[in-house]
Amino acid sequence: MIAILADAVGFITLLIIDIGVIRELAIGASIGVAVIVFTNLILLPVAISYAGISNRAIERSKKDAHREHPFWRLLSKFASANVAPVSILLALVAFGGGLWYSQNLKIGDLDQGAPELRPDSRYNKDNNFIISNYSTSSDVLVVMVKTKAEGCSRYEAMAPIDQLMWKMQNTEGVQSAISLVTVSKQMIKGMNEGNLKWETLSRNPDVLNNSIARADGLYNNTCSLAPVLVFLNDHKAETLDRAVHAVQDFAKDNNKDGLEFILAAGNAGIEAATNEVIKASELTILILVYLCVATMCMITFRSWAATLCIVLPLVLTSVLGNALMAFMGIGVKVATLPVVALGVGIGVDYGIYIYSRLESFLRAGLPLQEAYYQTLKSTGKAVLFTGLCLAIGVCTWIFSAIKFQADMGLMLTFMLLWNMFGALWLLPALARFLIKPEKLAGQKGNSLFAH
Q1: DSSP one-letter code for 41
Q2: Cβ–Cβ < 8 Å for 320, 94
Q3: Which end of the chain is less enclosed by CB atoms within 10 A, N or C?
């Protein structure tokens, strides 16, 4: 029950992120976990009661319980006094290296075009051609200029808009910018025989009013809101950050009563806002997931040592997972953030399964290495089979023609396998230093799984 609830916690914590699609995902995934509680704890035993278990399977299980297993005996050496320190040292090196390299992890998209598609896809090739040859793009940041009613056509409003456009056009990563000022200048020039000297804003209010008559869609019906459309080279995290900071700096210096520069609309504006929310929530989500998982482990086993044995391998997986994302050029965004919660929520299952059996054998008086061997004999096969089945299921995504699906397949395969390996390899090594078998021996089980 605790293992299944841990899966749910990983998704429920996503509800604190103020992004609708992530909250919907959290709710849907949590309902899915609730269904697993029904199928595993109710439907499965009911099905077995009808289907039954063959005598052959029972006999084979009895034989397995008494015969020697060379593979599990080999793995049990992870709990030995000689191998455990080496395992801890290797884990610390991996943790340090992963922490250092994960500093390269970015928020948002890191590629031009559609990140879901491969760079050589037809769409991304066409998008790159348009960006390279025209002053427009599919990535648009819209700055809303708010004025008093009938105020957007006044020189006092149009002049700052013109200055904002000039600032944005001289910002790295910006293709061009248009607004009602663009139309106004063109119309004033046209009304003066196309003379380039007149391609500027007039201080005459009648001239300005006439010049924006054809600027349909670039201001609202009351002329109190005028968008500035900024076309970007791409929607990379760095490009969005530069554009947003440029607008924010300009707004800070030019906002006044009756004139406001407000961010943001357009697909690039929405993505920039999403990146800000994710950046502010990423660490909070990770800490909250670990706190919830650690609390459930603490309630279950009532031991800080047991909790650390289960949670620390997950921390290593998270750090290495972030390093892998940085290495693969995958940014943290709406589509990838749930992977972190998924990795922790599902990963903790293995540790709970193994430690619950390990503790019961330690209470029976077995030394640590022998207790771990017996644990592997009883539950190691289930852990290994579960981890491999999950990994095989998602590793098929790696061959997908969709780049995002292939990347997520590789990420999930790594996290699922490493969580399983961490439970089999690092948990017994940590137990060697944190668990005192002599204190557990002969005690009555205070764990929900002790008996």
Answers
A1: I
A2: yes
A3: C
pLDDT digits (tens, 9 = 90+) for 234-293: 888 888 999 999 999 999 999 988 899 998 888 888 888 888 888 887 788 888 888 888
**373: helix, coil or strand?**
helix
Cα angle vertex 286, ends 281, 288, to 5°?
90
- Give me the pLDDT at residue 446, please: 44
Domain match, 249 and 388 both: no
- 318 and 425: one domain? yes
Q: Tell whether pTM > 0.85.
A: no
Same domain, 62 and 75: no
CATH of the domain at 427: 1.20.1640.10
317, pLDDT greater than 50: yes
Domain extent for 34? 1-67
Long-range Cβ pairs for the range 100-105 (8 Å, 24+)? 101/323, 101/326, 101/327, 102/319, 102/322, 102/323, 102/325, 102/326, 103/326, 104/326, 104/327, 105/322, 105/323, 105/325, 105/326, 105/331, 105/332
Q: What is the 3-state secondary structure (H, E, C) of 255-276?
A: CECCEEEEEEEHHHHHHHHHHH
116 in any annotated domain: no
Regarding whether 328 and 448 lie in a shared domain, the answer is: yes
Question: How many domains is the chain built from?
Answer: 3
Helix (H) or strand (E) holding 285: helix 266-301
Q: 402 with 340, same domain?
A: yes
Please, which residues have CB within 8 angstroms of residue 303's CB and are 6 or more apart in sequence? none
